[in-house]
Amino acid sequence: MKTKRLRSKFMTFCMLLIGLIVIYQYTTNYFVKKNTPMPTELHPFVQEKTNQLVQMMAEKGITMIITDDFRSAEEQNILYEKGRTTEGNIVTHARGGESLHNYGLAVDFALKTTEGNAIWDMEFDGNANGTSDWMEVVETAKSLGFEWGGDWPQFKDYPHLQMDFGLSLAELQRGERPNVAIDH
User: Fold this and answer.
1) b/e per residue, 132-142, with b = 16+ CB within 10 A?
2) Which of 55, 114, 122, 172 could link 134 by a cystine bridge, Cβ 3.0 to 4.6 Å?
3) CA distance 151 to 154
4) Which residues contact 28 (CB under 8 A, 6 or more apart)?
5) How confident is the model at residue 70 (pLDDT cuts 50, 70, 90)?
6) Which one-letter DSSP state was computed for residue 94?
7) What residues does 64 pair with on adjacent strands?
8) Is residue 122 within 8 Å of residue 109, measured between CB atoms?
9) Which residues pair with 82 in a beta bridge?
10) From residue 150, how far is each of 74, 129, 172, 173 by CA, in Å?
11) How many CB atoms lie within 10 A of CB 79?
């Protein structure tokens, strides 16, 4: 009887020890930040797809411009303060390190009129084909692999296009980076 209890206690101890080892390995791999530097420019694949998008839109008679792409954490914090501690409207809910712009994985766009003005008019049909130029940009961007901020369920960011390559914000913050080859 004593041997059974001892064996049971030993088995419980072993199972507990194995559980602790598994938890330790999981948390070490999941929570420990890699020593990966923050990007300093737009990811080359995102840059290539952005260039393709601009070219494809030009071929449809739509002039689009990229109004923002890579943004440092410091620049992100300045934008975050707009409408909060500085004048202006709130333009982002993301602080530095919380936006895909900070990882070189996002761009913002506008349309350009024949007069040279940047506009964010989602109904504008400058090429007069009966379809909103804005939505033509969005559909083409999606076909190139971009996600559109206008599809987000809560804060709609209509000028925003991004590619996350299956990485969550938490993974990017821990130092994971996309490993994507550029098309040629």
Assistant:
1) bbbebbbebbe
2) 122
3) 9
4) none
5) very high
6) -
7) 111
8) no
9) 86
10) 25, 22, 22, 24
11) 20
Please give the DSSP secondary-structure letter assigned to residue 149.
G
Length of the chain: 184
For the chain, list the strands marked E by DSSP.
Answer: 64-68, 106-112, 118-119, 147-148, 160-162
Do the Cβ atoms of 68 and 52 come closer than 8 Å? no
Q: What's the token pair of residue 44?
A: 């080359």
172: helix, strand or coil: helix
Helix, strand or coil, per DSSP, at residue 57:
helix
> The pTM is what?
0.81
149 residue type, one letter: G
Q: What Cα–Cα distance (Å) separates residue 8 from each residue in 12, 15, 21, 22, 90?
A: 6, 11, 20, 21, 61
DSSP 109: E
Query: In whole angstroms, what is the distance from residue 161 CA to residue 110 CA?
Result: 11
pLDDT digits (tens, 9 = 90+) for 9-22: 777 766 776 766 65
Tokens standing for 141?
Answer: 């961007």
**Degrees (nearest 5) of the Cα angle 83, 152, 126?**
85
Q: Is the pLDDT of residue 183 over 90?
A: no
Tally of CB atoms within 10 A around 147: 17
- The chain-wide mean pLDDT, for the chain, equals 90
